[in-house]
Amino acid sequence: MHENFKPFDIIVSNPPYSTKWEGKNNPLNANDERFSVTTLAPNSKADMAFVMHMINHLSSSGSAAIVEFPGVLYRCGAEKDIREYLVKENLIDTIVKLPNNLFFGTSIYTCILLLRKNKNEQGIFFVDASKEFIKNGKKNKLSKQNLEKIIEIIRYKKEIEDFSILIDHETIANKNFKLSVNSYLNFNDEEEEIDIEELNIKLNTSVKKINILREKINQIIIDLEGSDE
User: Fold this and answer.
1) Same domain (yes/no): 63, 138
2) 184-196 pLDDT, tens per residue?
3) Other CB atoms closer than 10 Å to residue 95's CB: what's the count?
4) Which one of 35, 53, 69, 219 has the lowest number of neighbouring Cβ atoms within 10 Å?
5) Could you list the residue range(s) of the whole structural domain that residue 213 is in?
6) 98: how many CB neighbours lie within 10 A of its CB?
7) Where are the beta strands (DSSP E) in 69-200?
8) Same domain (yes/no): 198, 172
9) Mean pLDDT score of the chain, rounded to an integer?
């Protein structure tokens, strides 16, 4: 971003998904005005660091539209703390789930995070636009009609069954600040939460079982070789 021109009234961004950053490894980040208002984004995933950077660069009534990997909407830990901050500060206006296979280089679903400072209305508007596309060769594409429908629904906050809904902050807090669209629409949540500690325990158990099995196989081979003599 161009520091000489900040603050910005409008920011549109498609930052890299889940890239690494220095995070807590750089002690300056803890006191950086962009990040110090809440928890630092994890070192392994800079998605929320980009979000906080853009919020810092918005004017007092500015808006931002950020294309994001959907994991930022439901992952636990530091990202959950940052979502809580964004919700309590009433900075999130709308979250749109986009169709999969829109962008070159990835076929995953993505989402648009619409942020707005100085927002008077409470709550967050959720839109499931995952079916709003036309085929364009091997990729999907948002047609003019698709875009016009999505924009109109967001502009007027039209609530349509299984497509769009306004959710109050209390309900979001009761869901532990999950912001995935399918947590509030269609309820077929595609998110996959991974408990790292539990995963490591299972992995270590599997490794031990494999080692025991390998020893048994080796012993069987030794016994077979011995019986041939």
Assistant:
1) yes
2) 997 654 554 455 5
3) 22
4) 219
5) 190-228
6) 25
7) 92-97, 111-116, 124-128, 134-136, 139-141, 164-167
8) no
9) 88
